[in-house]
Amino acid sequence: MALAVAGLGLLGLCYGATWASPAKVFEALGGARGGSNVVIREWRLPRVLAGLVFGAALGVAGAIFQNLTRNPMGSPDVIGLDAGAYTGALVAITVLSGTSAQLAFGSVVGGVVAAAAVYLLSLGGGLSGLRLVVIGIAVNATLTAVNSWIVLRAELEVAIAAVGWSAGSLNGVDWADLRIPFAIIAVLLVLLVARSSAVHQAALGDAVAASTGVHLERLRLQMVLIGVGCTATVTAVAGPIAFIALAAPQIGRRLARSPGIPLLPAALTGAVLLQGADLLAQVLLAPVPLPVGVISTAIGGCYLIWLLIKEVRRT
């Protein structure tokens, strides 16, 4: 998967309105001047890095929630966290001026509020299992209806911008859009690495985790905040990108042949899926690039059908 990440990154730097050879890409990355070199460094490189970093963040967020719920359906886009982050961003766009800082803050607040709602409604069964997933689906449906109402009530220009942004897109991202989100994701991933051992212990069961000294409620709260932070940060920049967080952890688990949901394979798989989907989005209707969310939704929908069929057969 690491080799696939590197290969897709190089392909993303080569592909554009004009094809650049790998030698030209390495020359540009080495600091060479000239028009095509500036295009590679200033236009293509931010988009490629956004696909890799955001894909890894979504993969990790999905792994966190699937570990907590011990359910392959327990991902941020299924249990309403993406919809909550989108609600916060919509409020920032329609009520406030919609600056980058307001979008980031609104997305985080919306995601945290959605997570709190799911948690409080799930208290009877704890933050795990099918109960949380079902409640999350209900919260997701409610927030989706709220988001549609906000868009319908907005002014036409604002509504068009909000609907376009809701598809999830890496079109037009530049370095100014990525510096703060990359820093936030890096901090969240460092915190996650520090708690990764406890996360894997918790995935083995509450009794096993508690017997090894893991404070489950504290760990769950920390993991929820990290997962929401990753999801909301991506949403604030690129909009809600569906199904990467759902599919990446399960694909990574199967590739690693792990009994639980390993974090590193999930991150690498998420990076591969998002970067691959973005390349497809650029190629399919070239020279007009599609939003990457359209491709990820199509791929993720097929994956979701397969996963549901498999779960039904198992039960």
Short recap of the structure:
The protein is mainly α and 315 residues long.
- Give the overall form: globular
Low-pLDDT parts are: none
Supply Rg: 19 Å
Secondary structure tally, helices: 13
Mean pLDDT across all amino acids: 83
Distance between the termini: 31 Å
Set out the fold topology.
Layout: H1 2-14, H2 22-29, H3 35-69, H4 81-94, H5 100-121, H6 129-153, H7 156-166, H8 175-203, H9 206-211, H10 216-238, H11 244-256, H12 263-284, H13 292-314
Helix pairs in contact: 1-3, 1-12, 2-3, 3-8, 3-10, 3-11, 3-12, 4-5, 4-6, 4-7, 4-10, 5-6, 5-10, 6-7, 8-10, 11-12, 12-13
Question: What can you see in these coordinates?
Answer:
This protein has one domain: ABC transporter involved in vitamin B12 uptake, BtuC (Orthogonal Bundle). It has 315 residues and is mainly alpha-helical. The relative contact order is 0.16. The protein contains 13 helices and no strands. Helix 2 crosses helix 3, helix 3 crosses helix 11 and helix 4 crosses helix 10. The protein starts with a helix and ends with a helix. Keywords: Cell membrane, Membrane, Transmembrane, Transmembrane helix, Transport. One of its GO terms (molecular function) is transmembrane transporter activity. It is a multi-pass membrane protein. It is found in: Cell membrane.
